[in-house]
């Protein structure tokens, strides 16, 4: 049996996207007979219990002070410990017999950390979105589409590192591939709106979008609002929306796919949900919530695949309402997102899992 360790974190500052996409990849690898162990630090807002509920082993690392790391990754503080302490704790979690593959999905980890784990693993796979630091890995996945995305890791990886680049490798749940085949074109007046800004949403963009929807007050139009059960703004938001019959509030959903399939337009962030929406041909009004989302949103907006409204610091309810109104009136253009759906087919997770298994074979490990 292949033994795989996954190092990733979630939290209010980090968001939930890293853990959620690793749960998707882990499900695919487990389907190929792999035994998965997650190694996660207990940041405020961590998702260790969620990982365990999916049937995976979880090693929980206690939160520590993260000292300054001159010359280290820009997000080094997100490790919740020094890089060498985190590497040693990960090594202890893996154990002296090692594992077949270590998958890393963490902005606070770079080549120094990875080299320290090399003696314990046959293959290191890295999931990245930033291309802002060197890696010592056998395989790198960046599912994003930005300007010059095929070259931005030049000089950061070994020449023989396998590169999986672009949304063809987007880590989506199996349901998206099935729904992709039966997706529909969204034309005419929108009647169902989906609002989702990820698992953190520290700026309460969900509330801004809900207020914008209510301000338009269009009869016969409904909105599904999805929030994290443990989100900072969730209790107050639920209380505010309790008297709005046109809004349904959801949390704890195993997948957004059913709501996306029935929605006519979405309002959300620029993270991993981007590829889910595009896979189903769902038009989206996007407000970026972090600096690393901006290059992706800018490129997708240039291609006409999304409507990027700006950053969370610049977009309020009035801007969201102005962008949403054409969809409710049936005058918004949606041909760009239909083109994108031909690129994001929902099979990226299967492609990535196959590439990881091939990495084992290259390193002499029998799948």
Describe, in plain words, how this protein is organized in 3D.
- With 367 residues, the protein is of the alpha/beta class.
- The model has no long low-confidence stretch (mean pLDDT 94).
- It is globular.
- It is built from 13 helices and 13 strands.
- The N and C termini lie close together (7 Å).
- The strands form 2 sheets. It has a 7-stranded parallel beta sheet with strand order 3-2-1-4-5-6-7, sandwiched between helices. Strands 10-9-8-11-12-13 form a 6-stranded parallel beta sheet, sandwiched between helices.
- It has 2 domains: 3-172 and 346-362, 3-Layer(aba) Sandwich (Rossmann fold), CATH 3.40.50; 175-341, Rossmann fold (3-Layer(aba) Sandwich).
Please identify, by name, the CATH architecture of the largest domain. Answer: 3-Layer(aba) Sandwich
Instruction: Supply Rg.
Output: 20 Å
Strand segment count: 13
Number of domains: 2
Number of helices: 13
Enter the CATH topology name of the largest domain. Rossmann fold
Distance between the termini: 7 Å
How are helices and strands ordered from N to C?
EHEHEHEHEEEHEHEHEHEHEHEHHH
How would the global form be characterised?
globular
Global structural class:
alpha/beta
Main beta-sheet strand count, sense and barrel state: 7 strands, parallel
Averaged pLDDT: 94
Stretches with pLDDT under 50, minimum 5 residues: none
Q: Quick recap of the structure?
A:
By secondary structure, the chain is of the alpha/beta class. Helix content is 34%, strand content 19%. It contains 13 helices and 13 strands.
């Amino acid at each position: 049996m292949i033994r795989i360790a996954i190092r990733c974190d979630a939290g209010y500052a980090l968001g939930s996207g890293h853990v959620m996409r690793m749960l998707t990849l882990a499900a695919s690898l487990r389907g190929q007979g792999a035994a998965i162990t997650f190694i996660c630090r207990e940041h405020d807002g961590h998702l260790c219990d969620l990982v365990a509920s999916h049937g995976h082993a979880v090693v929980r690392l206690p939160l520590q002070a993260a000292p300054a790391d001159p010359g280290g990754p820009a997000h080094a503080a997100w490790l919740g410990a020094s890089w060498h302490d985190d590497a040693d704790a990960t090594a202890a979690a893996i154990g002296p017999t090692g594992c077949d593959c270590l998958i890393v999905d963490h902005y606070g980890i770079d080549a120094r950390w990875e080299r320290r784990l090399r003696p314990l693993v046959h293959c290191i796979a890295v999931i990245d979105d930033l291309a802002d630091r060197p890696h010592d890995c056998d395989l790198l996945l960046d599912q994003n589409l930005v300007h010059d995305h095929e070259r931005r890791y030049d000089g950061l990886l070994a020449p023989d590192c396998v590169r999986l680049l672009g949304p063809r490798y987007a880590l989506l749940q199996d349901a998206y591939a099935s729904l992709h085949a039966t997706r529909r074109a969204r034309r005419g007046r929108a009647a169902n709106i989906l609002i989702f800004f990820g698992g953190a949403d520290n700026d309460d963009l969900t509330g801004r979008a809900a207020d914008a929807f209510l301000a338009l007050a269009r009869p016969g139009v409904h909105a599904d609002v999805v929030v994290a059960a443990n989100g900072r703004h969730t209790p107050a938001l639920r209380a505010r929306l309790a008297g709005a019959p046109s809004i349904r509030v959801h949390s704890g959903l195993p997948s957004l796919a059913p709501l996306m399939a029935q929605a006519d337009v979405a309002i959300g962030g620029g993270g991993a949900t981007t590829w889910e929406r595009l896979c189903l041909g769902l038009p989206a009004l996007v407000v970026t919530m972090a600096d690393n989302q901006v290059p992706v949103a800018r490129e997708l907006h240039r291609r006409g695949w999304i409507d990027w409204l700006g950053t969370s610091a610049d977009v309020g309810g009035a801007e969201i309402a102005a962008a949403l109104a054409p969809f409710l009136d049936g005058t918004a253009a949606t041909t760009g997102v239909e083109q994108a759906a031909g690129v994001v087919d929902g099979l990226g997770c299967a492609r990535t899992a196959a590439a990881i298994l091939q990495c084992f074979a290259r390193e002499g490990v029998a799948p």
